[in-house]
Write a structure and sequence with these properties.
Length: about 80
Amino acid sequence: MGLLYALLIGGVAGFLAGKLMKGGGFGIIINIVLGIVGGIVGNWLFGLLDISLGSGVISDLLTGVIGAVVVLFVAGLFKK
């Protein structure tokens, strides 16, 4: 069940990050995959900086979106 939850939150986070990063998206499928990776990056980054957004779906989604935006930004640097 945890894997399904992570995929769902990562997918939504990737979709939202693609909408936030105008011109930084790669299409909906790749944005969803990058959102899943972004969730991992967001958790790692916030753990490294000792930042806690709380617990629950909203904090997981916010962490995933922020991580996905970072991943989309870095991926956009290599896209050009």
